[in-house]
Design brief:
The complex is a heterodimer of chains A (324) and B (431). Chain A is α/β, with parallel strands linked by helices and 324 residues long. Chain A has 15 helices and nine strands. Chain B is built from 17 helices and eight strands. Classes of the chains: A alpha/beta (324), B alpha/beta (431).
Chain lengths: 324, 431
């Protein structure tokens, strides 16, 4: 493999990654730091899976900052094809050039050769990543949304870091990018792709970690409210909803409650801000009519500041109503 | 599980004198690899036996990874190896279990003897089926193998078959059932060929192929005189089959499963579930060469085959556990049931709404639709109908044949459509 470690040479290992992640406001655990570290050192793509809203994409951004390099992002969607991911010809420019050359006596082959050369090439994310001057971080986001065919193509690019463009020839990466792939598991990825990558699963954070995140991102919030919010979130993830709220929702909600000058959770406060939590009409109704009461009772029943641990909350969550 | 004394490796893994030292110093020093490669290889083999896809390249990565972390720190080694060896959420617990077992923290007395990995491994052989066997099973392509190419043309003109084609499945005697199965396979195979042929020959593009148009335009001095087209690739639909096997539905479900499986090559991936009071996934059980034997096996797996019915609860279970992974706009969901739900109707309505929102098309096959005078008045059926794209029967061979046109792709127009084909009363007689 070509030298991809130009940036990782002075890299300080796991403790430094934890430090950088923390300084960027990202509360990292050791597992995440180890995976990021190994992905850099071994120069293997890192596949991150987890529910929506747990900060998978964030990892790549932080990684780019840690390596002080560029972040190139390829957002996948159904129907994503090679033209959008790799390269496309700049047709307007080609057309213009053809017009300008109309009167010249140059042979057609020469004209053709010219308009199919690099200046007329529009580089899409994958080609950008391959031709970059330093190893960039290439984020392939939500790879599960692209179809199998594209996945196969991706696998090819990820194994050789070279692409061939019929009109130009083969372009090989001078600096192998650091690759991060994320997936929400809406579809099973192929074994081949999985084997090509290191693997990291990011779960919803436990109570303590989520509390730290809230305090870091919404520092003005008071302890009692933060405790209540995080406990509420842990509990609401235990009931059947079609869109389980993630950390992003926790933060939105915290900010909203703070903006409304609330210092504790009560039915009215929740009622007013429920839209931050439930992004689905049916969930909204379900929470309002069925779950809000029991969860709030449970949170209020937890007493003052003592004994707010993820273990206790997990056991309380088991007692919540399950049916719809 | 035999537990020979050398089952657990001393920690740190590469310190041959660990035993003499008692508890090893955990300082951050990096030690040169001792028997580490052998142990990692051995560990990898164990993982492979548990079904993880771990090969030489992963072992190489693991060894490289261990040079990049502090090997005297057990947790760090665990995380590093896990990042390399595990490759999906399901594999994480397996990894953790094996890691705890293999790289056991308590130091065992015969540490220096670790250099004979081959010996240590064999007695611990797990009784679970090896990974090799499993690949072999999944490679088995029964529909291709079983194909009897000689009889293919004879089907449509075969007149006793014509008669049989209109007879309700439940009206056949037990002796006939095998013959019916054969017939269903033949028909399915013909349909499969037709489906794939149609996909290939579709003409006329929908998108301008700019790249080729530009190239061609050079002939005309750069004016795009002739537009060249490309068209979107037609993808095969995926199928999810949810079959009611309670009471009277059993026989219809059996035939439907056989039919769909014979179509497998033409429709892409098929996932199958059986339900009565609860839901069982039988995709793997059906992944065998002989569909009839496979069905027998699947029925052993289903705890309450031919018991009562809880359609709503079963569909909800499906949505919760499988919905997100299996359903997308290209998926056709086929439900075969008479709609007799002994559970809560509200659950059924919720589950159907969910299903319809995520899937590309919902086909409900109700075999009773074939019986004269039937109207979908059971509460379950009328609750489910608003969320169904196609409502049809599956009570005889002809009705299975009719299924072909519904399997061609996801719905075009979104609003629900009640299309009762195959001789049901609602739709009137077709053809």
């Amino acid at each position: 493999m070509a030298s991809g470690s130009d940036r990782s040479a002075g890299f300080g290992g796991i403790p430094q990654i934890v430090e950088i992640l923390n300084s960027q406001g990202y509360i990292a655990d050791r597992e995440l730091a180890t995976s990021v570290h190994l992905s850099i050192v071994l120069n293997k793509p890192l596949l991150i899976e987890g529910e929506a809203g747990v900060g998978k994409t964030e990892v790549a951004k932080v990684m780019a900052r840690a390596l002080d390099t560029e972040l190139i992002r390829l957002q996948c969607y159904e129907g994503l094809d090679v033209h959008t991911a790799l390269y496309e010809w700049n047709y307007q420019r080609q057309m213009l050039r053809i017009k300008l050359e109309e009167m010249s006596d140059r042979p057609v082959e020469e004209k053709e050769h010219e308009i199919f050369s690099e200046p007329f090439l529009l580089k899409r994310p994958l080609l950008q990543a391959i031709t970059a001057d330093h190893s960039p971080v290439l984020l392939i986001d939500e790879v599960d949304r692209a179809d199998e065919e594209f996945e196969a193509f991706l696998l090819e690019v990820l194994s050789d870091f070279q692409v061939s463009i019929p009109e130009i020839g083969t372009i090989r990466a001078r600096h192998v990018p650091y690759v991060v792939l994320t997936s929400n598991r809406t579809r099973e990825l192929s074994d081949a792709l999985r084997r090509r990558c290191l693997y990291l699963w990011i779960d919803y954070p436990p109570f303590e970690k989520e509390l730290t995140i809230v305090h870091t991102k919404v520092p003005q919030i008071n302890d009692r409210l933060a405790n209540q919010i995080c406990a509420f979130m842990q509990l609401i993830r235990a009931v059947p909803l079609s869109k389980v709220p993630g950390v992003a929702e926790t933060l939105d909600w915290s900010a909203a409650l703070f903006a409304l000058h609330r210092d504790h959770l009560d039915p009215q406060a929740i009622e007013e801000t429920l839209g931050c939590l439930c992004k689905d009409q049916e969930d909204l109704v379900r929470v309002r009519t069925q779950y809000m009461g029991p969860i709030l009772d449970t949170v209020n029943g937890m007493g003052a500041s003592d004994g707010w641990t993820s273990e206790r909350i997990a056991s309380l969550a088991a007692q919540l109503p399950k049916g719809r | 599980m035999a537990g020979p004394p050398n089952e657990s490796r001393p920690w740190p893994p590469n310190s041959p004198r660990a035993a003499d030292a008692g508890r090893t110093p955990r300082a951050g020093r990096r030690v040169r690899p001792g028997n580490l490669p052998a142990n990692v290889t051995l560990f990898a083999r164990r993982l492979r036996r548990r079904g993880l896809r771990v090969g030489p390249s992963e072992i190489g990565d693991a060894l490289r990874a261990l040079t990049a972390v502090d090997v005297s720190d057990r947790e760090e080694v665990r995380l590093a190896l896990r990042t390399v060896f595990a490759s999906s959420l399901g594999e994480l617990p397996v990894f953790d279990e094996e890691f705890a077992r293999f790289w056991n923290e308590p130091i065992v007395s015969d540490a220096p003897a670790q250099s004979e990995p081959e010996e240590g491994e064999d007695p611990e052989g797990e009784p679970s089926p090896g990974a090799e066997e499993r690949t072999e099973m999944s490679v088995a392509d029964w529909s291709g193998e079983e194909a009897a190419p000689d009889e293919e043309q004879s089907v449509p003109a075969y007149s006793p078959a014509e008669l049989r084609a209109r007879k309700d499945f439940s009206a056949f005697s037990a002796d006939d059932l095998d013959a019916i199965s054969e017939l269903i396979l033949l028909i399915a195979r013909r349909i499969a060929t037709r489906l794939s042929r149609r996909m290939r020959s579709a003409k006329r593009g929908t998108l301008v192929d700019l790249r080729r148009t530009m190239r061609r335009s050079l002939q005309f001095g750069g004016d795009p005189v002739q537009l060249l087209w490309r068209r979107r690739k037609i993808r095969k639909a995926k199928l999810v089959l949810l079959c009611d096997v309670s009471g009277s539905m059993d026989i219809y479900s059996r035939f439907l499963v056989q039919f769909i499986y014979a179509l497998q090559d033409a429709v892409g991936r098929v996932e199958s579930f059986l339900f009565s009071t609860s839901l069982t996934r039988v995709t793997d059980a059906l992944d065998q060469r002989d569909i009839r034997r496979a069905l027998a096996e699947a029925s052993r797996q289903v705890p309450d085959w031919s018991g009562g019915t809880k359609i709503g609860a079963s569909l909800r279970t499906f949505n919760e556990i499988w919905g997100r992974r299996l359903l997308d706009p290209r998926t056709i969901v086929v439900i075969c049931s008479d709609g007799w739900d002994t559970g809560d109707l509200e659950i059924l309505v919720d589950a159907m709404r969910d299903l319809r929102a995520r899937a590309g098309k919902v086909i409900w096959l109700n075999p009773l639709l074939g019986s004269p005078g039937y109207e979908p008045v059971t509460q379950g059926m009328s609750a489910a109908l608003p969320f169904v794209d196609v409502f049809a029967s599956a009570h005889n061979i002809n009705s299975l044949r009719e299924l072909e046109r519904h399997l061609r792709g996801p719905r075009r127009n979104r609003p629900p459509r009640l299309d009762v084909g195959a001789g049901g009363r609602l739709g009137g007689q077709r053809r």
